[in-house]
Amino acid sequence: MLLRLIVGYCVIGVFASAAVAGPGSRRSLADKHAPAGIMGDHLHEPGKWMVEYKYMNMFMEDNRIGENTISDSSALGTSTPVGPPGPGITTDGITTNRAATPTQMTMEMHMAHVMYGATDDITLYTMAMLPNISMDHTRADFTDFTTSNSGFGDMAFGALLRLYSDDCQDWILNLGCSVPTGDIFETTSIPTGSPTAFPYPMRLGSGTFNMRPGITFKRYYDWYSWGMQFQTDLPIGHNYRGYRVGEEYRFNSWNSILLTDNLSVSMRGEHLWRTAFDGKDPEANGTMISTNVEQFRGGYWYSLGFGAQYLWGSHYFNAEIVPTIAQEVDGVQLETDYAIIASWSRTF
Ligand SMILES: [Cu+2]
Q1: What is the DSSP letter of 275?
Q2: What separation in Å is there between the alpha carbon of 8 and the centre of ligand 1?
Q3: Ligand 1 centroid vs 44 CA: distance in angstroms?
Q4: pLDDT in tens, 196-209
Q5: Which residues contact 126 (CB under 8 A, 6 or more apart)?
Q6: Which residues, in sequence order, are bridge partners of residue 68?
Q7: What CATH number is attached to the domain comprising 145?
Q8: Which InterPro entries has this protein been placed in (predicted)?
Q9: How far is the CA of 286 from the centre of ligand 1 (A)?
Q10: Tens digits of per-residue pLDDT, 179-234?
Q11: What separation in Å is there between the alpha carbon of 159 and the centre of ligand 1?
């Protein structure tokens, strides 16, 4: 895979403009930001603002146990081990999806992002999120229903600190966090006829304060750049409904190639690890549906991002398509197919 990536870049590189600017203005060209799926990778000069609108839509279809796709009918009433079988891991099954199984889900997210350069070495940011989640289901009698939920999500903010920079590279520490502004107490009457709590993945927030530390490295060359980032999302304590969402750990690496000063293309690889939920919401009945099982939220996902960036004056466009190419879920969960991410930003 790595070899293919390198060969691919060499081919693109032949077509790359030889007349790109020197290292002095290197951070102001089309690859100045990381691909669209990455946050917290760049700083702004003191007194400068950036506003950004970012859109994401993630598509999930079919159920999976571990690494294997299963049919909708075998997802109903499945007895599934807790975690992938392995040395020291119990294979005692949890029987779930007795009432219904999810078959498909889209998670759309509108994000408003503001950054401000406070000093040479510190940039502050905040981000508001509006998730819009829709899930299709099949009942045990094979009738279908769809539930959806949308509203204000958890608000994120933090500070980006420059650890080290020279002519062509940056080390940036992200001291980030989120606050529980997303509602986790909404109900739907669609599946049962009486108000029932939304299952875990359809709730708008985590219900907890989360720490989100991360670290980014970026290096620029004449006509290309690369970077890597380790980013976490760590809930603190339990929310008022008695549970804590899983921890998230993401490792990303990417390359961007300048085709001209104003246009670049990028490729990114993302490893995502999620842990199971802890505690339990007493209203989440895991035997009825798998999206209510705390142990069935963790796993590992590997995705690739193919992106392009376009700089037009002070306007910056950044888009990516992100297929998930490998995943191993704990228990039975919907599988992730792909996401699309697009943003417009402006600095002034
Ligand atoms: Cu910015």
Answers
A1: P
A2: 29
A3: 6
A4: 889 999 999 999 99
A5: 113, 114, 155, 156, 157
A6: 65
A7: 2.40.160.40
A8: FApF
A9: 41
A10: 999 999 888 888 888 888 899 999 999 999 999 999 999 999 999 999 999 999 99
A11: 12
